[in-house]
Amino acid sequence: MSLLGLDIGTTGCKAVAFNIEGKEISKAYKEYPLLHPFVGSAELDPDRIWESVREIIRKVNMEILHDPVKALAVSSQGETCVPIDGKGRALYNFVVTFDNRTIEQEEWWAERTGAKKIFSITGMPLHPMYSLNKLMWFKKHSPDVYNKAWKFLLCEDYIIYRLTGLPAIDHSLAARTMAFDITARRWSEEIIGLADIDPDKFADVHPSGTAVETIDKKIASDLGFSEKVIVATGGHDQPCGALGAGIIASGNAMNATGTSDVLCPVVERPVLSGSMLRSNFSCYPHVFKDYYCSIGFNLTGGLLLRWYRDTFCKEEIDRALEEGRDVYEVIFENMGKDIRDIYFLPHFVGSGTPALDSRSRGAILGLTLDVRKPEIARAAIDSINYEMKLNIECMEKAGISIDKLHAIGGGAKSKKWMQMKADVFEKPVCLPAISESAAFGAALLAGLAQGSFSSLEDAVRNLVKIKETFEPDKKKSELYREKYEKYKDIYSVLKKFNYRMHEKQ
Hints:
Elements: E1 2-8, E2 12-19, E3 24-31, E4 43-44, H1 46-63, E5 69-76, E6 81-84, E7 94-95, H2 103-112, H3 115-122, H4 131-141, H5 143-148, E8 151-154, H6 155-164, E9 168-170, H7 171-175, E10 180-181, E11 186-187, H8 189-195, E12 204-206, E13 211-214, H9 217-223, E14 230-236, H10 237-244, E15 251-257, E16 261-267, H11 274-278, E17 282-285, E18 292-298, H12 302-312, H13 314-323, H14 327-334, E19 343-345, E20 363-365, H15 373-397, E21 402-408, H16 415-425, E22 429-432, H17 437-450, H18 456-463, E23 466-470, H19 474-487, H20 490-504
Parallel strand pairs: 1-5, 5-14, 9-12, 15-21, 21-22
Antiparallel strand pairs: 1-2, 2-3, 4-7, 6-8, 10-11, 13-14, 15-16, 16-18, 17-18, 19-20, 22-23
Helix pairs in contact: 10-17, 12-13, 12-15, 13-14, 15-16, 16-19
């Protein structure tokens, strides 16, 4: 038998099947396009997403005929939502997290209730991205869609609904709507009432790892499932990734380096301090029973390395193609050896936490005539690490301890990068054996619902293995500490200039 984790992202979806011993046995991926019907919008076609999910499930099922899937769960991007009618038909596209049409709703909340009250109930620092703001936008600007909508579903509950006919969402993803009371663990009557939104338009909410229903027989046959398959609640992709990486205890954090660089620590109880709010850190239910998690992130992250590759690295790309290697391996191999006073401000798409400043812009500082590509590459990677160290430092000041990190994502493939992270963070960086941590976390939740595991603790203890640990080099950490203190001044020094540029645009 096997367990299936579905990972529904912003630009593509992934299905990964694991056997009961936690070994990956099949995987499929399908991309879909982001749509921009007007300036500042970002949407996804719900039918395209469903067809992509169908395709990857079929492909996986064809490859695991001797290990049929017994249960599945979904790891989902957050905030993105779609209105459906009573027959399950989409009335509009999914409105994606970073669609900016809801700025007016954020301003309304700031004037009406203030960020502090929102944070104290929902654990979310005030921002336009949350799903509740999108519902408010529909009610004001597209009332026909709002009134016809039976439910507004996020990606997890949409896929569960398409598979079972029941709209169900877990606590962690429900929290990303900004309509969920994170301490009572139910939809917040107060917040939803202030927004003047019908509470029945949200999905039914359950703890992660709850069996919802078996897949509809007709759909199961269409997708290639051979037996009754349980559909379970999964979770938001970051806590799912943390679970899949073995992060189920306070003092530990997941660091996912992909397009963005994300930090996800675990805590035993909600941390809703003023320091958390000032640093724009959310706090919401983890997918692991009664625990909570937070998120710190650098929006550019690995995207900066991709920009460097596409802008400067034709020679490295050609060499990688000739030698059959990953181009990033070549870049890391050739980067500068010395830690120098060259810095990036990695805000090429605005900043993430703690500033969460959409008007901030990227910069390169400390250039001299002797600086070449290898030094620029080194500075880019060092600065990405400095930005995440800033998030770690702010979290620790807010009362969240981080003793070690488990690294996942594309960046975790580079041992050099992992060692550099350990040296900058001055903390051990551990590399889990399973790379598809978000899908694996969802599969573990499916196994819990199906009865394959007596508890998530047992599943994590037995199945999540660390294949390598990178300990900080004390001499390099000392030098990095000096550079980091300089790095921390860059954002504040450039902020006024960046705001002036924004005004002229």
